[in-house]
Design a protein that fits this description.
The complex is a heterodimer. By secondary structure, chain A is α/β, with parallel strands linked by helices. Chain A is built from 12 helices and 14 strands. In chain A, the strands form 3 sheets. In chain A, strands 1, 5, 6, 7, 8, 9, 12, 13 and 14 form a 9-stranded mixed beta sheet that branches. A 3-stranded antiparallel beta sheet of chain A has the order 2-4-3. A two-stranded antiparallel ribbon of chain A has the order 10-11. In chain A, helix 9 runs parallel beside helix 10. The longest helix of chain A is centred in the C-terminal third of the chain and has 25 residues. Chain A is globular and about 75 Å long. In chain A, about 60% of the residues are buried. Chain B is of the alpha+beta class. Helices cover about 40% and strands about 10% of the residues of chain B. Chain B is built from 30 helices and 19 strands. In chain B, helix 19 packs across helix 20. The chains are: A alpha/beta, B alpha+beta. The interface between A and B is large, with 90 and 87 residues.
Chain lengths: ~475, ~800
């Protein structure tokens, strides 16, 4: 089984793949055959990717609350700078064992929801469900301030679109068309045994993360699940039936032209999945009416549909949502506070929903972002923010996560996984820069841990993350590897 | 079992042009103009690839005095040739190089049909089609009449091709046509094919020496066009001199519906008048070259219609292009979008808010400009440029903020790209969008410095002139790095958006000045010396210390504009927007060559680039490459459908109000509101499956949800009757299509589907698709013609075969 899947992955990366063979591959992935074995998923695992669009300033999201606050943070971001979070405003979180003795706090917006009282991200950390992955970012090889000019570094650092691509595609040395979410779906296709419903569902468009070599994500919007993929004008009359039948037939012919076949396949998937989305599941969990809240609510509904519908029964699912507004060159204190409130309340509600569905130990929610931001503020009193950085901190959440701790790879010269908040310090790109952290943890190590838990085998890991061999260890400890199918 | 190497994924790398990079192949691709006076002397350009100095050019064997101006261009002078004849162009490359032949490339004008003649383009087409070679002595005799005998020859050549030879005549078919009479073979074949039934029966005669009449010609043309089993719908009584009882009336009226003819003046058709040779050329061109015209108009306008097809065929491509160059821009005038105060006045009610503080009117005008504006090509190019040099209403939601940015693009769409770069750099909306308006020497903002290079001009990697990337052992070579951006950002310091008194009706208030170029404060400008592109091609360019802001800015824009990437980058993106997502490197190189040098040594001239994109054989030739073409983006898909069927207001009494953006939004494209500076969809998005390595940028917004919305749009315009007027909900007039002609054709499912095949698919519908749609039409009874019409249009318009423009 593994061999055939890997051969498939290799075969379909060859540029000479004919349109007919690609069509056959899509059929093999069951995009055409929706009605598979009618049984509930037996070993369900799901990854939920939240992309924080714009480059979140994690320097103000996870903040030292000990002497490092006074001696580092408050010096780089003094009160007068307009970018400082007062010490007393930080939400205390339990000391991470990995940074023995050091104390931290989270941004005040990551508090419990004041209306529903659902735990926010700080409480979830303290309950051991949420972990921090420290100073992670795209790398080609591990680099330090000393050797960065002589070793390969990611293409187009500090460019939004390119760094988004690097994070989502899972390699930082060249641009490719697929993402590690899609490739993880390819590598675990056998877990979903012929179900026609795609492994990857995105509520925020088919960005690179979602695209696999063979698999194409299902892209839907928020709203009633039985209304998202509706073809208007069909009421069952003979004319309507004939029209539908002819439309469906037209997609199976004239496929020699590459783009025509691509358009037909996209529409075909929509029609196939539309038939599966026949109900709008209800949840007792109350989601905030924000954009991210609506997206995560939709994710929860699709999960419920999968669990309760005999026609779907996917054992592995990957979801993608996006939340924007993090490119805080100006007005950061206000804007980031609003954005992180939305983030914490939406994720908090989503975690509640996984409890409601009884799958909180089977769902891992995690964040990605373009980059962190400069420790040094930019702009002036009227409008203060920060500029594009590199390494940043991300969150990972779920009952399977060994939460209440920070994870990452230590800087060899400091021995700490958390950066020294000193401009020009040992974690900075250079000794006269603005506090842009060289990541000590690579995307491969972070995402590889997620993918291995999800069910990508050790053998397939280099197929999903081509540069993973450049980094050691290839897994961090916040999740254990899962079984592949 | 071996573990596949990571190298397997290298093959999924996105090539810059969608194809594996390669050095371009030597060839002469085309010449322009392709016709001129027989006496010679017309300057011509030969366009191709890999021309070497010393190349020689002959036209019909006569030397054309070649001068190689670049590897993609040779200037020459047409030699004296015989009037009315077509000649091969032969290029012998420099350095004893290879020979490239363009057969029948040059047409020497007839003495009596010069370029200025209204018959010029159709007569040239007649000769190129091999239908006629004139009346002798270098003349065409455009005013001479045509006999029915001559007509038989013309028709069969038009139907079968120039090389056709009919079987020998027997002389026993028509009593007035002997076996050895002039054109007897052709006349008898015309009868055998059912195109003619003769001029009289008992006995059966053909009247070979009679002049062909306008009435007879209509039937002849359409029988060849459709095939002889075709039966046109009954006549309605369109012309005052063509009663519905006249046997030729249905043919005449169909010819008029196709816009091949508008009659002979007033409400008359003059069915008995003779047809002159000049008129014949026009009628035949307008009838038999519709497919090419439709393909051209799909690339050069917001969508073809029959009248547009006929107009193009009558003028010819070059005249059409010249008229488009001169057409008045529809644009977004200041008078319609005057400045309003930054905060809406208390007196501004909800309609006033909608009109002046939302994108409503700007979006509506996009559609009305597209549906009705005469400057179609300018609008298409401006839209492509908007997707390249991006400002989004997502961030600047007021129309008066964005209209000046749009005007700068419209005005310069056929001008010089450097002017676009300069004017948009100082455009206030752009200043706000990419933060240049708050960039000072104390805190220079790098956003604009990055995007003007990354997206508006150069791209992130070094390009060859054919659009492929320059690679080294690490992959594509970067065109700049952070240090380059850090130097450039110091140039863009000190500009700001000023305020001016608001125009009426807000004269007492102060308005942000979105119209004038940004103002400049020298105290906020970094006046230290700057070194641009240090360590990269295009540099180093040193800007001296203590220059004025304008000096710094102009020199910086020059440095960017002169970068060798700009030609292939702009060429590639415009080709993507107009023609195909996967051009050959040769095509990109030929177009980039016009950006680099318009023929007079000028760089950056957009009009030669636009013409080069549309005149290139890769765009003009019916494609055989499976990869060719592009998915119609939502705005183009909507306008194509609406223009094909004369969209008007819901009650058909006036123009549509243009309230159509909700359809585009549902399909994933909020007009004027791209989600980011990376436009509506990524430049390098792959058509699924990604493994095939084929570019399909428009697929970036084509997914499960949006694909069904395309069908729902067509359903709205067909079965649901269009967009009803709903003035209380911001739809003052609505939009509907004209189904009159489809209703006429509706009793015959074959005729109905054939019509849509020709108009929407330019005749490429497969037999399988046709049979399927015909059968589906038959599910509605002939007594329900409108549903039959809706059924046919729905199925063609939602098909992938139509959604992808080839």
């Amino acid at each position: 089984m593994k061999q055939s899947r890997r051969e498939f992955l290799v075969r379909t990366t060859c540029a000479g793949l004919s349109a007919a063979a690609a069509q056959a591959s899509l059929k093999k992935l069951g995009l055409m055959n929706l009605y598979a074995r009618p049984s509930a998923p037996t070993d369900y695992r799901a990854l939920v990717c939240i992309f924080m669009d714009g480059g979140n300033d994690s320097n103000n999201m996870v903040v030292p609350r000990d002497s490092y606050y006074t001696n580092q943070y408050a010096i780089a971001r003094p009160a007068a700078s307009g970018l400082q979070l007062p010490l007393g405003s930080l939400l205390p979180v339990n000391n991470p064992p990995s940074l023995g003795g050091r104390a931290f706090g989270f941004h005040p917006s990551l508090a419990d929801d004041p209306v529903t009282f659902y735990p926010g991200l700080a409480s979830l950390y303290n309950a051991g469900k949420l972990g921090v992955v420290s100073n992670v970012g795209p790398l080609v090889v591990p680099v330090t301030q000393a050797n960065i000019d002589s070793l390969p570094t990611p293409y187009s650092l500090f460019s939004h679109s390119d760094q988004i691509e690097a994070w989502q595609s899972g390699r930082a040395d060249q641009r490719i068309a697929t993402g590690w979410g899609g490739r993880s779906a390819d590598a675990t296709i056998d877990c979903n045994g012929g179900s026609g419903f795609p492994t990857v569902t995105t509520i925020a468009g088919a960005s690179t993360f979602c695209v696999g070599v063979g698999q194409r994500p299902l892209a839907i919007d928020t709203g009633a699940l039985d209304q998202v993929l509706v073809l208007n004008g069909f009421y069952g009359s003979p004319g309507d039936v004939a029209r539908k039948s002819s439309m469906d037939y037209a997609r199976t012919i004239d496929r020699t032209a590459t783009l025509i076949a691509a358009a037909s396949d996209t529409t075909q998937q929509a029609v196939d999945v539309s038939a599966a989305l026949s109900v709008d599941p209800t949840l007792t969990t109350i989601f905030p009416g924000t954009d991210l809240g609506s997206q995560l609510q939709q994710v929860a509904k699709v999960m419920k549909l999968n669990l309760s519908s005999p026609n779907l029964s996917l054992n592995r699912q990957i979801f993608y949502v996006e939340t924007g507004g993090y490119d805080t060159h100006q007005d950061q204190l206000q804007d980031q506070a609003d954005r992180l409130t939305e983030l914490s309340q939406a994720i908090g509600a989503f975690y509640q929903a996984t409890l409601e569905l009884g799958i909180a130990d089977r769902v891992v929610t995690f964040t990605l972002s373009d980059f962190g931001r400069t420790l040094e503020p930019s702009g002036d009193q009227g409008s203060v923010g920060s500029d594009h950085g590199w390494g940043s901190h991300q969150f990972v959440l779920g009952n399977a996560v060994a939460g209440g701790n920070f994870y990452g790879v230590p800087n060899p010269s400091t021995g700490q996984i958390f950066p020294q908040l000193v401009m020009g310090g040992p974690d900075d790109i250079s000794n006269d820069d603005r506090g842009r952290w060289i990541p000590t943890t690579s995307v491969e190590q972070y995402a590889g841990t997620l993918a291995r838990w999800f069910g990508v085998s050790a053998l397939d890991l280099p197929v999903v993350f081509p540069l993973v061999a450049n980094f050691s260890p290839n897994m961090l400890g916040f999740l254990n590897p899962g079984t592949s199918c | 079992m071996s573990i596949p190497k990571a190298a397997a994924f290298v093959l999924a790398l996105i090539p810059a042009s969608g194809r594996l990079s390669a050095a371009t192949t030597y060839q002469a691709a085309y010449m322009t103009p392709a016709s001129g006076p027989a006496a010679g002397g017309a300057p011509v350009a030969i366009v191709g690839n890999q021309f070497q100095p010393g190349a020689a050019v002959t036209i019909g064997g006569a030397d054309a005095g070649a001068s190689v101006t670049s590897s993609t261009r040779i200037g020459a002078t047409a030699p004296t040739r015989n009037a009315g004849a077509v000649y091969d162009l032969v290029v012998t490359n420099g350095g004893g190089g290879a020979v490239s032949v363009l057969p029948r490339a040059w047409f020497a004008d007839f003495l009596d049909v010069p370029a200025a003649s209204p018959f010029h383009a159709p007569v040239e087409q007649m000769v190129r089609d091999g239908i006629t070679s004139g009346c002798g002595a270098g003349n065409y005799c455009p005013t001479s009449s045509i006999t029915r005998a001559q007509m038989a020859v013309f028709l069969l050549r038009a139907g079968h091709g120039a090389a056709y030879v009919p079987p020998p005549a027997s002389g026993t078919v028509f009593t007035d046509v002997g076996a050895s009479d002039f054109a007897a073979d052709w006349i008898e074949e015309l009868y055998a094919e059912g195109i003619t039934g003769g001029c009289a029966t008992n006995p059966l005669r053909y009247c070979p020496n009679n002049a062909i009449t306008r009435g007879q010609m209509a039937a002849f043309l359409l029988k060849v066009y459709h095939g002889t089993t075709y039966a046109p719908p009954p006549a309605q009584g369109v012309f005052s001199d063509v009663p519905v009882s006249m046997p030729l009336a249905p043919w005449i009226e169909e010819l008029a519906r196709l816009s091949v003819t508008a009659g002979c003046g007033g409400t008359s058709y003059c069915p008995s008048n003779p047809v002159t040779r000049g008129q014949m050329a026009v009628f035949m061109t307008k009838t038999f070259h519709r497919a090419e015209a439709i393909r051209f108009l799909e690339q050069a306008t917001w969508g073809p219609s029959d009248s547009a097809v006929a107009a193009l065929l009558g003028q010819g491509l070059l005249s059409w292009l010249a008229a488009q160059y001169a057409a008045t821009p529809s644009t977004y005038p200041n008078s319609l979008f005057p400045l309003w105060p930054p905060d809406s006045p208390d007196t501004c009610d909800s309609d006033c808010q909608r009109d002046n503080y939302s994108s409503y009117r700007l979006q509506n005008r996009f559609f009305t400009n597209a549906l009705y504006g005469p400057d179609q090509l300018r609008q298409r190019v401006a839209w492509a440029l908007h997707k390249l040099v991006v400002v989004s209403e997502e961030t600047l939601p007021y129309p008066f903020q964005v209209a000046p940015y749009l005007r700068a693009i419209d005005t310069n769409a056929f001008g010089n790209y450097r002017d676009i770069l300069y004017q948009e750099t100082l455009n206030p909306a752009m200043g706000e969008y990419l933060n240049m308006d708050t960039s000072t020497k104390y805190d220079p903002n790098e956003n604009y410095a990055r995007e003007i290079m990354q997206l508006f001009s150069i791209g992130t990697v070094l390009l060859n002139q054919d659009g492929t990337t320059q690679n080294d052992a690490n992959g594509p070579k970067p065109s700049y790095d952070q240090a380059v951006i850090d130097e450039f950002k110091r140039v863009y310091t000190g500009w700001y958006i000023d305020q001016v008194p608001c125009p009426a009706p807000n004269g007492a208030a102060q308005c942000d000045d979105w119209v004038s170029p940004m103002s400049f404060d020298p105290d906020l400008h970094d006046t230290d010396a700057k070194t641009l592109f240090n360590g990269f091609p295009g540099g180093p360019v040193v800007l001296a210390a203590n220059q004025s802001g304008d000096q710094d800015l102009n020199q910086a824009i020059d440095a960017i504009f002169q970068h060798p990437n700009v030609g292939p980058y702009v060429a590639r993106e415009l080709i993507h927007g107009l023609v195909t997502s996967n051009p050959s490197p040769e095509y990109v190189e030929r177009v980039a060559g016009f950006f680099n040098d318009d023929g007079t040594g000028a760089r950056g001239k957009m009009w030669p680039v636009v013409k080069a994109i549309l005149l290139d054989p890769e765009a003009r030739t019916e494609p055989t490459d499976p990869v060719f073409g592009h998915l119609r983006e939502p705005a183009l898909y909507i306008t194509n459908v609406l223009r094909a069927f004369h969209a008007m207001s819901f009650d058909r009494s006036t123009q549509s109000d243009g309230v159509l953006e909700p359809f585009a939004r549902d399909m994933g494209q909020k007009v004027w509101k791209p989600p980011t500076v990376f436009s509506y969809f990524p430049q390098a998005y792959s058509a699924p499956p990604a493994s095939a390595g084929v570019l399909g940028p428009e697929f970036g917004i084509m997914n499960s949800q949006t694909s069904l919305k395309r069908a729902n749009f067509v359903n709205q315009m067909t079965f649901w009757g269009g967009v009803e007027a709903d003035p209380n909900n911001d739809v003052p007039l609505g939009t509907s299509l004209d189904f009159a002609e489809l209703l006429l054709l509706s009793p015959s499912a074959d005729n109905l589907v054939d019509r849509l095949n020709r108009l929407l698919l330019h005749g490429t519908m497969s037999d399988d698709l046709r049979a399927s749609i015909v059968a589906a039409v038959g599910a509605y009874d002939v007594s329900d013609p409108i549903d039959r019409a809706y059924q046919a249009l729905y199925l063609v318009a939602v098909s992938s075969q139509y959604q992808v423009e080839r």
